[in-house]
Amino acid sequence: MPQATLLPREKIDTLRWDAACARDANTQPYGTSWWLDAVTDRHWQGIILDDYRVVLPIHTLRRVGPLCQIAPPPFTQIAGPWGDLQPHDVPTLLSEIPAGTVRLKLRLRDGALTGGLSGQYRIRRRTNYVLRLVADYEEQRRGYSRTLRRRLRRAGPTRLRPVDPADAVTLYLKSSGVKAGLGKAQIAAVRRLSAALTDEGAVQYLGVENATGQLLAAGAFPRHRRRLINLLPGATELGYAQDGALRLLDKLIESNLGDCDLLDFEGSELPGVAWFFRLFGPDRLEYLQLTRGL
């Protein structure tokens, strides 16, 4: 029978943990120890299955005595599991959830749940959009909707350029971050994650200008195992009026063809956001959210 163990962060062998993530066919970075350290400020635990064959991070949001609440870390779409996942591994992993957990929300990757769960968990399917990148830009653009192609033609010349990481983060916090209603803890997580991405050399900070050199939009775009992620997008007031977000994603796609296989739009639950991403012709994928006691 598979053997699962819950370990605190300080007892996790990060080399073996990250090796399990690297073996996984899924190319998202959310399970790596450095990502988790950044978004949680090292306040996470790990469930280890069969001596690091499979790993599952859990983030304790609140703790009162022996009671705790488990919630998704900020800016981390899914928790995993990561590694050489086998049928019925998920129930074994969940058996190690701390006994004092009174509320739980856990997001699992697509295809993770192949065995049954007890009735204590409610399961909701959530949506993400992922665009497959091809080598030729004109071929890629043919997959765009007519609406998108028309708006890009109307937009006129657009130039992609590097931006300072601090400027990209500030623009995100002033635009998308305000709309999302980020609190102090989430803002601190944004800054830690940006620093970790820079340290790992795993991110592009890019923006777009219009024909007169005015900045319209910018963002941080992590790259992990040939997957590009749309993270921390932000737009200026002028950018909202001049389709800055559309122009930024179009130029991002064009500049990464041949270097990346996928563009992950990273979150597509809001109807307006989903409509926006569908303009580019992506695939619709599902992942699972488990809840208990909510």
Written account of the structure:
This protein is an alpha+beta fold. The chain has 11 helices and 15 strands. Strand 4 (60-64) and strand 5 (67-70) form a beta hairpin. The model has no long low-confidence stretch (mean pLDDT 94).
- Low-confidence blocks of residues: none
Give helix % range.
25-40%
Strand content: 25-35%
Characterize the main sheet.
11 strands, mixed
**Overall number of strands:** 15
Task: Give the N-terminus to C-terminus distance in angstroms.
Answer: 31 Å
- Mean pLDDT across all amino acids: 94
Q: What's the alpha carbon Rg, rounded to whole Å?
A: 20 Å
- What's the order of the H and E elements? EHHEEEEEHEEHHEHHHEEEEHHEHE
Instruction: Tell me the overall shape.
Output: globular
Number of distinct helices? 11
Structural class: alpha+beta
